[in-house]
Amino acid sequence: MTDRPASLAQPPAGYADSLPACESLTVEFKSDRARLSDRELVEAIACLANAEGGELWLGVEDDGTPTGLHAEHMQLSGLPGLVAARTSPSLTVSVTSMAIDGVAVAHIAVPKAHGEVATTGGVYLRRRLKADGQPECVAMLPHDRSSRASSFGLMDASAQVVAGATLADLDPLERERLRQSVQQYGGDRVLLELDDEALDGALGLTARQVGGSRLPTLAGLLLVGREQALRDLVPTHEFAFQVLAREAVGFNEFRRFPLLKALDWLETNFRPYNPEREIQVGLFRVPVPKVDMGAFREAVANALVHRDYHRLGAVHVRLDDEGLTISNPGGLVDGVTLANLLTTEPRPRNRALADAMKRVGVVERSGRGVDKIYRGMLRLGRPEPDYRRTDTHNVVLQLATVDADEAFLRLVVSEEGRRGAALPIDSLIALAALRELKRLTTEELALHIQRDPAQARRTLEALLEAGLAQAHGATKGRTYTLAPGIYQADGDKAAYTRQAGFAAIQHEQMVLSYAMQHGRVTRADVITLCRLSPDQAAKLLKRMKEQGRLVQHGERRWASYTVTQGA
């Protein structure tokens, strides 16, 4: 380090007076009373960078007590250069010296590395939490490095040839199942015209070697491999289906089937636990299952396709009294967070496997499978899919199995029938949020749809134009509720009264306003304006005529109404 002294500053804003309360995955304390060696310091920084990044406090004991910097470390200006010179690829850190409790300490901000960082001595370390919640630095083994690389999209394990695998490990029966799946799920029908070798090549199930021979890839074994080959060559592949009722085990089996067979097996065993009834909506009978099968299939396929195959651990599909939980080893890939699940571009961890499953038709070909899961839940008036238990090691999805809201389902089905198309996912989320929260601002909806407030405003205004929402207030501070008729359909009369006022009074004012603006109003105008049935519109006009507020002109279907003078 250089001899130029660094100025001693008070803690800048944002660092809290203060030290974090304790060590964590992103906070490391290092004592400097005996002068921490450069090697140990650089290793600790690389360890943080290979996890989530964070901050290292030099001159602080493990219990959080600041004891100060060693005399040889009082000059810190050369520390960033030291770290850059002794890491590969070079790591850029920022260093701030400050006084806490009257002693000098150093705060070193460490960025999360996009890849893996080693010391120039060849040491790879990563930070993790032990079972008791305390952090530790451990060696970064080859499978850890491969796992990290795949999470950043730097390598695709599913496209790699599996060591020891041969073409004999691919099962002709599973290849036939794949062709049947293409037909069943509406996949790429070009695949049906290919022979086995061409099919394997087109889907990346095999890779051609230098000598011209072909060997199975991980994607090939997972899709059409023999079960024994999967047990021997892909020991990380396993899945479980569990049913728990009041803590009693109703079903608990682990399997290592290839993926298409796994999906069939899981769906077959899940159906007896997924009762379904039907409701009448207009001319159609609409199914109301405990769990939407489209959402179930997409969620399970996502867990099997996007799991980290470098990590041991099974994909779990568990049904209990709280709902359906689907979890898989491997956290979200880099760039995907809980705050952008709905809007980020697809970033598959196992790209070759994901592409093959899309072409077969098993998963959403647009890569928007999360939308399908949201739609399957919200359409039935159930809560949003819950990913909050997801962490750096596992993706955990919880789907509530509370009773469906039939009135909300009727609303959605009716509106989709009117449009002749499914509601946009943003509109469906907005309707569900309005139903749940009663009143929304654009900023609140923006959080739900994971978009900016401008897009949230456009979504709400579109619902307003469709007669599904009602606006309150001017542009600034404007809020939205479900339209009056929607609350009535939902059966929540108290909420309707609180949020929208008395419907009859509002309808009368709307009719009077329309008649004054356009000179007259007809029953058809009232039906469209107030979203009433023909009978309700007729009764409203009759009541207003009897009150002397409207004057009728003509009879029956040719009748129109004008505002009474002085009304």
What does this structure look like?
A five-stranded mixed beta sheet has the order 12-11-15-16-17, with helices on one face. The longest helix is centred in the C-terminal third of the chain and has 16 residues, at 503-518. Helices cover 37% and strands 19% of the residues. The protein is globular and about 95 Å long. It is built from 20 helices and 21 strands. Helix 9 (293-306) runs antiparallel to helix 11 (369-378). It is α+β, with helices and mostly antiparallel strands and 567 residues long. Mean pLDDT is 87; it is low at 1-17 and 493-502.
List the helices and strands and how they pair.
Blueprint lengths: L26 E4 L7 H12 L4 E5 L20 H7 L1 E2 L5 E7 L2 E8 L7 E2 L5 E5 L5 E5 L2 H10 L20 H14 L10 H8 L2 E3 L5 E3 L1 H7 L2 H7 L5 E7 L2 E8 L3 H12 L5 E6 L2 E6 L3 H14 L8 E6 L2 E7 L21 H10 L8 H10 L15 E6 L6 H14 L5 H13 L4 H8 L3 H13 L3 E4 L6 E4 L1 H7 L2 H8 L2 H16 L4 H8 L3 H13 L3 E4 L6 E4 L4
Parallel strand pairs: 1-2, 11-15
Antiparallel strand pairs: 2-5, 3-6, 4-5, 7-8, 9-10, 11-12, 13-14, 15-16, 16-17, 18-19, 20-21
Structure described in brief:
This protein has 567 residues and is α+β, with helices and mostly antiparallel strands.
Query: How do the strands of the widest beta sheet line up side by side?
Result: 12-11-15-16-17
Label the structural class: alpha+beta
- Mean pLDDT comes to 87
Total beta strands: 21
Please give the alpha-carbon distance between the first and last residues: 88 Å
